[in-house]
Amino acid sequence: MDRLSDIGEIKRIMEESGFSFSKALGQNFLVNPSVCPRMAQMCGADSECGVLEVGPGIGVLTNELCKVAKKVVAVELDKRLPEILAKTLSDHDNVKIISGDIMELDLHALIAEEFEGMDVVVCANLPYYITSPVIMKLLEERLPIKALTVMVQKEAADRLCAQMGTRAAGAVTAAVRYYSEPKLLFKVSAGSFMPAPKVDSAVIRLDIHKEPLFEVKDEKLYFRVVRGAFSQRRKTVTNSLSSILGIDKATVTKAAQTAGVNPLSRPEQMELRDFALLADAIWEVTR
Fold first, then answer.
1. Where are the alpha helices (DSSP H) in the chain?
2. Which CATH class is domain 7-208?
3. Which CATH architecture has domain 219-285?
4. Nearest in space to 85 (alpha carbons), one of 70, 65, 114
5. Is the omega angle on the peptide bond into residue 197 within 30 degrees of 0, that is, cis?
6. What is the pLDDT of residue 127?
């Protein structure tokens, strides 16, 4: 069904099924017909590839993904939607809808069962309220996926794709760049949705690193250092980490000097490798 982004068709489907939007689930359906084809073409899928979609809604993006991928598996939290999706996606025999919470599913098992022998990418129009948790779950679990293409709030896209060493960078920037190479693909206006949100969106793609950019001695400590530094970003990295990690300032200063990091640096002045070197140095001096 190729009219799923038509406002009239969406209203007809909603009336026919007695469906109404859920504010709690952050539901906004796309009504701009050019967005989903672009996402499907740019997400890295091809005729031999599997696509895991999160939150298919009524299937606007799913419909386009089915045209380019070998198989699409869409995970939908709203239990009212699978019945609607069975109708809107009836033209395709390469799609499977799974009713469940993406945050609770065993994604390694799902991918192994549904996409055996295939390269896999993720593509999703994510509700704003759960953007970062979903992205970080998909990255932190080190799933066998090549790329993650998502539509998110424009402000979140700017933060996720920011360059390290700039004021726009934050803890989530460092986390995303640890696992992947992010790229902003294109912007999407608020008027592209029904109902229209109050802010614009953007589509980004995270190409997953085949190998880690660098090894760290303690990954949990690395992320504690990153989060700790950015939690008090107006302070120097020495002062903020001393407070957050509960380590005396002299010890943190010694670690920074060992790592070749200026103890007076603020987090937005640091590159990704600086955090890794600093975390390793802190690990060494606190053993």
1. 7-17, 35-42, 60-68, 81-88, 107-114, 131-140, 154-160, 171-179, 219-231, 237-245, 249-259, 272-285
2. alpha beta
3. Orthogonal Bundle (1.10)
4. 65
5. no
6. 81
Give the integer Cα–Cα distance in Å for 17 and 33.
22
Q: How far is CA 156 from the centre of its chain?
A: 10
Give the domain ranges of the chain: 7-208, 219-285
Separation CA 209–CA 180 (nearest Å): 5
Our CA angle for 22, 28, 31, nearest 5°, is 140
Neighbours of 18 (CB within 10 A): 7
Which residues lie below 8 Å from residue 105, measured CB to CB, with a gap of 6+? 75, 98
Of the pLDDT bands very low, low, confident and very high (cuts 50, 70, 90), residue 140 is very high
In this predicted structure, the answer to whether residue 203 has a pLDDT above a threshold of 70 is yes
Q: What is the pLDDT of residue 128?
A: 81
- Distance, C-alpha 229 to centroid of its chain: 22
- List pLDDT tens digits, range 13-38: 777 777 665 655 556 777 788 999 99
